[in-house]
Amino acid sequence: MAVIITLAIFVLVLLFLNRLAGKHVKYSNRVFIGLGIGIVFGIIMQLLFGSDSSTTTTILDWVNIVGNGYVSFLQMLVVPLIFVSLVRAFTRVEGEQNLGKIGFNVLSVLIVTVAIASFIGLSTALLFNLDGAEFTQGAAETARIAYIQERQAEIADTTLPQQILSFIPTNIFEDLAGLRQSSNIAVVIFSAIVGVAYLGIARKHPEEASYFKKMIDMLDAIVSRIVTLVLRMAPYGIFALMVKAMASSSFQALLNMATFVIAAYVAMIIMFAIHAVILAGFKVNPINYFKKASSVLGFAFTSRSSGGALPMNIQTQTEALGVEDATANFAGTFGLSIGQNGCAGIYPTMLVAIVAPTVGMDLSDPMVWLTIIGTVIISSFGVAGVGGGATFASLIVFGTLGLPVEIIGLMVSIEPIVDMGRTALNVNDSILAGVVTSKRLGTLNEEIFNNPEAQIEVN
Question: Based on the structure, what is the number of domains in the chain?
């Protein structure tokens, strides 16, 4: 009976959120309302039934239809978004010389900022005395560790050079299907090759190239429309995901991990501040920037999906911040798989700092820091833009450094909480790359950037 009553209330909340949409309540407000209700709903469930009870498990099986269904739709979009957005960037760039400058500048910003993020992660972990810290292991953590160890076994014999080699696609259909860990970066490489081929055809056979360009524009319009339909599910999906996160997480585990959560958010806030300093260094107003980027960052925070935020990311760059089209597409797309400051920079480095003293790594040695940061930079290539990217990045770093992976599994209780901040930071570093690149190349539209009316909002 308790299961039926709880699910009935769950459905009523979904109907309430749908009613808010019918009344045209602002999208971001509906997302945060769903987030808030989900947290309260999940906490009440845990207080009433416990996190490990059969009642909670049965209820969450049904709740997962909405929550995991939403995540699955986001995952469905990642590969089409990467391919269409990156190829479209090539069709809209003028001159191969500009293409090289755009690509170099975007990658430089992403790589430099992920290196800084790794440094901040190490420093923050030491500041909060997390090096060598121990955490309680419950049933959920035990199950997660078993899964992590299984994943680690799949890549245990892969050296760093082999990992780099795996980025090259050997069967693009396999990578389009996402069957490899490095499928995302492989799709990026394939898309870039298609784009370069387009530029060659455009020089020699402009008529054929124009047909291809129209086809890519048509695909972009269709994929963007699909994204809009999926994003409309966000208030419901986020509500369900938060119900699951709060109902299935042990309060004791959350308290046990509280120091790590606080430290992680301190590191992320510091990194946001560094992004602001970088903007100011290029004479871009950080306050104006963050005002205009707030909508997409808010969506990234609640949805926990860099991939799902890509269309809004690109639209924010072009229509609100004045970044020209090709640069925005390059920055947004590369930022999905390269140099993610949160998932591939701060998070794995903080985990390394926790484990390092237990295996004899001396964090007072500058060479150890350089080794960790260098490993993080290379491992940041190919991180997925939807849930699981941080885990994969951490596995690569730990495998390369020869560290035990159990600590990654111990984070399962706080994963959703930390992931919200990580995703917002990931999206921000890709937007930063677009704005800085556009500013350096003199293509930033200052009129759009300074226009307070130029704002982006999901409908």
Answer: 1
